[in-house]
TrEMBL record:
<comment type="function">
    <text>Responsible for synthesis of pseudouridine from uracil.</text>
</comment>
<dbReference type="InterPro" id="IPR050188">
    <property type="entry name" value="RluA_PseudoU_synthase"/>
</dbReference>
<dbReference type="Pfam" id="PF01479">
    <property type="entry name" value="S4"/>
</dbReference>
<dbReference type="InterPro" id="IPR002942">
    <property type="entry name" value="S4_RNA-bd"/>
</dbReference>
<protein>
    <recommendedName>
        <fullName>Pseudouridine synthase</fullName>
        <ecNumber>5.4.99.-</ecNumber>
    </recommendedName>
</protein>
<dbReference type="InterPro" id="IPR006225">
    <property type="entry name" value="PsdUridine_synth_RluC/D"/>
</dbReference>
<keyword id="KW-0694">RNA-binding</keyword>
<dbReference type="InterPro" id="IPR036986">
    <property type="entry name" value="S4_RNA-bd_sf"/>
</dbReference>
<dbReference type="Pfam" id="PF00849">
    <property type="entry name" value="PseudoU_synth_2"/>
</dbReference>
<dbReference type="InterPro" id="IPR006145">
    <property type="entry name" value="PsdUridine_synth_RsuA/RluA"/>
</dbReference>
<dbReference type="GO" id="GO:0000455">
    <property type="term" value="P:enzyme-directed rRNA pseudouridine synthesis"/>
</dbReference>
<dbReference type="InterPro" id="IPR006224">
    <property type="entry name" value="PsdUridine_synth_RluA-like_CS"/>
</dbReference>
<feature type="domain" description="RNA-binding S4">
    <location>
        <begin position="15"/>
        <end position="79"/>
    </location>
</feature>
<dbReference type="InterPro" id="IPR020103">
    <property type="entry name" value="PsdUridine_synth_cat_dom_sf"/>
</dbReference>
<dbReference type="GO" id="GO:0003723">
    <property type="term" value="F:RNA binding"/>
</dbReference>
<comment type="similarity">
    <text>Belongs to the pseudouridine synthase RluA family.</text>
</comment>
<keyword id="KW-0413">Isomerase</keyword>
Length: 304
């Protein structure tokens, strides 16, 4: 049993308790919080409350968080596109819409489920739910991921990420006309203090650097860019491009409400390079844009 305590501040005062708590912790959904309220696991100032209770500034909320149930990762044949594989590492081209690793309520259809079916040997450093996973890309971002098949490889790849020696190039379609051909965004990123579900540029955030280069412009309305990650913060490209006024097309979290319906942000991790953990040879892989991305660009070109 774990007791978590929050004191409500002015920024969340007046919100329903389920919404307020979901804003304070991105780990919990409103439905999960509502379930805990019905199970009398949540009190406000020592008293049990209803789900419709609106929090007040200074309220002290205590949550009796139940112990998480252990999840069994079930291998699934997901026909993964394996770009490269040897006894140490594996490179996979993740399709848009696929979650990288399982989580409560989402235990099937993830990249990890597919990896468990494809190969039996994966590093165990990140635990049973994230075997072999050394970095991730968002559900609706397509493209390349490197996977460690043993702990030696895992340590090597993580060290390269920390030392910023991994090559990661993304193609993104953004709103707006970027007049200059290239640029660098050096702005720290942390959880958005106003919305716990999002990341934001925050003064005391973690160091984050994105380099970008314009590939194509579309009638002053959209710009196609290549983004090169120097660091790898959560949602980094999406946050940084929005920060400078050019949010990603289709991005439901950081983009404008009026955008192209693409089923998520138009972002593809097309190039991945790293030093092999054993041979010490530099390897670089490239995969083309997925068909829906290509079709979108062709339609924009036709529109002039």
């Amino acid at each position: 049993m774990t007791i978590v305590t929050y004191t409500i501040e002015q920024t969340t005062a007046g919100e329903r308790i389920d919404k307020a708590l979901s804003m304070l912790s991105a780990e919990w959904s409103r439905s999960q919080i509502a379930t805990w309220i019905s199970e009398d696991r949540i009190t406000v100032n020592g008293e049990e409350i209803k789900a419709k209770y609106k929090v007040k500034e200074g309220d002290v909320i205590e949550i009796d968080v139940p112990e998480p149930e252990p999840l069994e990762v079930i291998p699934e044949n997901l026909n993964l596109e394996i770009v490269y594989e040897d006894e140490d590492v594996l490179v996979v081209n993740k399709p848009k819409g696929m979650v990288v690793h399982p989580a409560p309520g989402h235990t099937m259809g993830t990249l990890v489920n597919g990896l468990m079916y494809h190969c039996k040997d994966l590093s165990g450093i990140n635990g049973v739910l994230r075997p072999g996973i050394v970095h991730r890309i968002d559900k609706d971002t397509s493209g390349l991921l490197m996977v460690a098949k043993n702990d030696h490889a895992h340590h090597s790849l993580v060290e390269q990420l920390v030392n910023k020696t991994v090559t990661r190039k993304y193609t993104a379609l953004v709103h707006g006309h970027i007049a200059h051909d290239k640029g660098t965004i050096d702005a720290p990123i942390a959880r958005d203090p106003k919305d716990r579900q999002k990341q934001a540029v925050v003064d005391n955030g973690k160091h984050a650097v994105t380099h970008f280069q314009v590939l194509e412009r579309f009638g002053g309305i959209y710009t196609l860019v290549e983004c090169i990650l120097e660091t790898g913060r959560t949602h980094q490209i999406r946050v940084h491009m929005n920060y400078i006024g050019y949010p990603l097309v289709g991005d439901p979290k950081y983009g404008p409400k009026k955008t192209i319906d693409f089923g998520g942000q138009v972002l593809h991790a097309g190039v991945l390079g790293f030093v092999h953990p054993t041979s010490k040879e530099y390897l670089e892989f490239q995969v083309p844009l997925p068909d829906d991305f290509v079709t979108l660009l062709e339609n924009l070109r036709k529109e002039g």
